[in-house]
Specification:
The structure holds two protein chains of two kinds. Chain A is of the alpha+beta class. Chain A folds into three domains: 85 residues, no CATH class; 109 residues, Butyryl-CoA Dehydrogenase, subunit A, domain 2; 140 residues, Butyryl-CoA Dehydrogenase, subunit A, domain 3. Helices cover 44% and strands 14% of the residues of chain A. Chain A contains twelve helices and ten strands. In chain A, strands 1-4-5-8 form a four-stranded mixed sheet. Chain A has a four-stranded antiparallel sheet with strand order 2-3-7-6, with no helix packed on it. Chain A has a two-stranded antiparallel sheet with strand order 9-10. Chain B is α+β, with helices and mostly antiparallel strands. Chain B contains twelve helices and ten strands. In chain B, the strands form three sheets. Chain B has a four-stranded mixed sheet. A four-stranded antiparallel sheet of chain B has the order 2-3-7-6. In chain B, helix 5 runs antiparallel to helix 8 and helix 8 packs antiparallel against helix 11. The longest helix of chain B is centred in the middle third of the chain and has 36 residues. Chain B is globular and about 75 Å long. Chain B starts with 6 loop residues before the first helix and ends in a 6-residue tail after the last helix. Classes of the chains: A alpha+beta, B alpha+beta. At the A-B interface, helix 8 and helix 12 of A face helix 8, strand 10, helix 9, helix 10 and helix 12 of B.
């Protein structure tokens, strides 16, 4: 057990700190990725890339920093920007998922055309995966594309397409080989969102906001060279991206700062003449959740170590999505419940606390438990891949 | 940056596991449970040979001179095999008490004997944490009177270290005049705790009169960490047994491991346990290397893994169906070990309250 980073990395940490101090006046406020990056975001992004604080390993020729992969440096960068609460650069599905996929599977032309403007914030992407009938069982998707006059012609419907209303491009999964088994009939296409035939309708969620969209596709024509990988290989290509998505370490820093926020509420709000923290029942719940959060903090160091040593942490990694989203919801539950009736206020109501953000958070946490592989799907993955338990046989096989 | 066990630590765990697994097939566990002694000499001498009984005792006192995280690794292995040895009391709590608060003479007298396993120590600190049945030991002049409940590993012990109020701790040979030992029987027969009644017992006070406050606190902290590590090992075994059983047991022409209802129970168990493994390891590391963080992390680790353990012993038993409820399957030995650990040295609620106080959350 050695939790020091060593002198080389401590120097790097200092360097990052100094950069943040000197330049933070240029940074746009940390955003939620709910709008298209403007000039201020783009300039900040370019400054971060020049210094190697984001898009660190993306080759120079595609507009990245061109550094060697170094997970510890990534962790230090994340840490320092989070501590200073300074915008750490653009995120989103284009940078997070499409770019790594193109680097691994794209043609030279696709890399040339898309990577630079994507990481510089000029092209914003949405992801066209889920469909009304294809959620957990994504590979059963039915949006189809036939080839006609050098184009794929796409018809169908996508859902849960966040950011579609301001995105420039979409990476989309469509069925191109209807006669093949479901995993082998899918292709991965890059689609310009200005193409005729795309209709985006906001999907208002239980929070009252439209965090997602539905996307209707009618005879949308996409040139045949906008395919990534070969026809029918879309599932494999998409899994390249999923691998990048799942490669993320559990990031407990957000949960730790939530504990701090709830503690502040409990130290300031009064109930029956006593501060909330002085009520044993409420205090007990906060400490119980803190224990889980601290456990997750050290757990992610354990996972980080495995990544550094190129070891497979097995089931220890598979639990992260399920554990983290469950805990996240538990924390917002506590915030709401210790506030009692006041916790139910929302939408700019008189007496509302924290702008009603805990109510929003609590609902959105439920969305996170469901999205990106529901807790039930996660438990299947944990038990099958982590504990070696068999898959549930398909209906026909049980006869 | 390396968060995890070293190769030496993995080797240590492996050696302890090999020793205990070889000695403790289910029929042997049944035998010792029936004998109610909480002690198998052959396993104890095996641990002595490995240097485990002196793991945290410095070499100058005949110990191995390792760190608390090494002890955590041993405890995890002992929990895995529900080993009937007084390790928590004798190899963890008593040495910590002596090392933190003992005079040189007390250290020289007792530590070498504890390291070699010749002397086994039981530790009584229950009433410093919480008092029930109006028990407790008081000191007047240099004489001790009263009852210490749940003296950890007290039943096979040769000496006792017993707290008399928050600032005094006495070292008492079992055969000292005025000492009466009553064995307590919990559901767990793998470690036997006891009640020690003291009537006019002459006290050899740890560090001198009124000098043991810090040592008592440190001893309680180390004991809690030890129990957390023990639960970690025992609970992990229960999950493993549940998964294995589910893969073999068939109902409706399928192994029950293929039913999502069963799989999800197993997934929930491992998800509850694994993060707390990381926290228990960190608490063990912090004990020596980041002392400022040790107390909070021990409190969070023990209360947390007690909660996870409670869920796991219930769920793993349920996965086994009716068989889980039988003596034949023997699963209950692990169940009982985890269950009793949860109640010792403070319940989860008490520990969480202490954690809030330790962080200054109640200060105005």
């Amino acid at each position: 057990m050695d939790l020091s980073y060593g002198p080389e990395y401590e120097d790097f940490r200092t360097e990052v700190r100094v950069f943040i101090e000197k330049n933070q006046h240029l940074a746009p406020p940390p955003g939620m990725g709910m709008y298209h990056p403007g000039p201020k975001e783009q300039d900040w992004q370019k400054l971060l890339i020049e210094n190697g604080y984001t898009c660190r390993t993306i080759p120079k020729q595609y507009g990245g920093y061109g550094g060697e992969p170094d997970i510890l440096k990534n962790v230090i960068i994340q840490d320092e920007f989070a501590k200073a609460n300074v915008n750490s650069g653009l995120s989103g599905q284009g940078i997070g998922m499409l770019v790594p996929t193109l680097l691994e599977r794209g043609t030279d032309k696709q890399k040339e055309q898309y990577i630079r403007p994507t990481i510089w914030g000029e092209i914003y992407w949405c992801q066209g995966y889920s469909e009304p009938g294809a959620g957990s069982d994504l590979a059963s998707l039915r949006t189809n594309a036939r080839v006609e006059d050098g184009h794929f012609v796409i018809n169908g419907q996508k859902i849960w397409t966040s950011s579609a209303h301001f995105s420039d491009m979409c990476f989309i999964l469509v069925r191109t080989e209807p006669d093949k088994p479901k995993h082998e009939g899918i292709s991965y296409l890059l689609m310009d969102m200005k193409t005729p035939g795309i209709e985006v309708r906001p999907l208002v969620t239980m929070t009252g906001a439209a965090e997602f969209n539905e996307m209707f596709l009618t005879d949308v024509k996409v040139p045949v060279d906008s395919i990534v990988g070969k026809r029918g290989e879309g599932w494999l290509v998409a899994n390249t991206t999923l691998k990048h998505e799942r490669g993320m370490l559990g990031d407990p820093s957000q949960l730790l700062s939530r504990i701090e926020s709830i503690l502040k509420i409990m130290q300031n709000e009064m109930l029956d003449g006593k501060r909330l923290i002085e009520h044993e029942l409420y205090r007990d719940r906060l400490v119980a959740a803190q224990a889980k959060t601290e456990a997750l903090k050290y757990h992610s160091l354990r996972l980080l170590t495995c990544t550094l040593k190129n070891e497979d942490p097995g089931v220890a990694r598979l639990i992260i999505k399920y554990y983290g989203t469950t805990l996240s919801r538990e924390l917002s539950d506590i915030a709401l419940e210790v506030l009692g009736e006041l916790g139910s206020l929302y939408d700019g109501s008189p007496h509302v606390r924290s702008y009603g953000s805990w109510q929003w958070r609590n609902m959105f946490d439920l969305g996170l438990i469901i999205g990106g592989g529901t807790s039930q799907i996660q438990k299947n993955i944990i038990s099958e891949r982590g504990l070696g338990m068999p898959r549930e046989p398909k209906l026909a096989e049980t006869k | 940056m390396e968060f995890g066990l070293s190769d030496d630590q993995k080797l240590l765990e492996d050696s302890v596991r090999k020793l205990t697994e070889a000695q403790l097939p289910l029929e042997k566990i049944r035998e010792y449970a029936a004998a109610k002694s909480g002690f198998i000499p052959a396993i104890w001498s095996g641990l002595v040979d490995l240097g485990a009984t002196g793991v945290i005792i410095p070499e100058q006192y005949g110990g191995t001179g390792f760190k608390m995280l090494d002890a955590v690794v041993i405890l995890e292995a002992l929990g895995r095999t529900v080993a009937p040895v007084p390790f928590t009391g004798s190899a963890i709590m008593a040495p910590v008490a002596l090392l933190t608060g003992g005079t040189d003479a007390q250290k020289e007298e007792w530590l070498p004997q504890i390291a070699t396993g010749e002397v086994k120590a039981g530790v009584g600190v229950t009433e410093i944490i919480s008092t029930r049945d109006s028990k407790g030991v008081s000191l007047s002049g240099d004489t001790l009177n009263g009852n210490a409940m749940f003296v950890i590993d007290g039943s096979p012990a040769d000496i006792f270290l017993i707290a008399a109020g928050p600032d005094n701790m006495a070292i008492i040979p079992r055969n000292a005049p005025g000492v009466t030992v009553t064995q307590l029987k919990t559901i767990d027969y793998s470690r036997m705790h006891c009640e020690v009644k003291l009537e006019g017992v002459k006290a050899d006070l740890l560090g001198g009169k009124g000098k043991a406050g810090a040592a008592i606190k440190q001893t309680i902290m180390a004991g809690r960490l030890a129990l957390a590590a023990d639960t970690l090992g025992a609970a992990e075994v229960m999950i493993g047994k549940a998964v294995e059983y589910a893969k073999e047991r068939k109902q409706f022409e399928r192994v029950i491991a293929s039913y999502q209802a069963v799989k999800h129970m197993c997934a929930e168990m491992i998800s509850e346990l694994e993060p707390f493994r990381s926290l228990v390891w960190y608490a063990g590391h912090a004990y020596d290397e980041v002392p400022d963080e040790a107390l909070l992390n021990v409190l969070l680790a023990k209360s947390g893994i007690d909660g996870a353990g409670k869920f796991i012993i219930r769920t793993a038993t349920e996965v086994h169906g009716g068989m889980g409820f039988t003596d034949l399957m023997g699963l209950h030995y692990w169940y009982k070990r985890v269950s009793v650990n949860r109640s010792l040295l403070g319940t989860p609620e008490m520990l969480r309250n202490e954690a809030a106080i330790a962080q200054g959350w109640l200060a105005a």
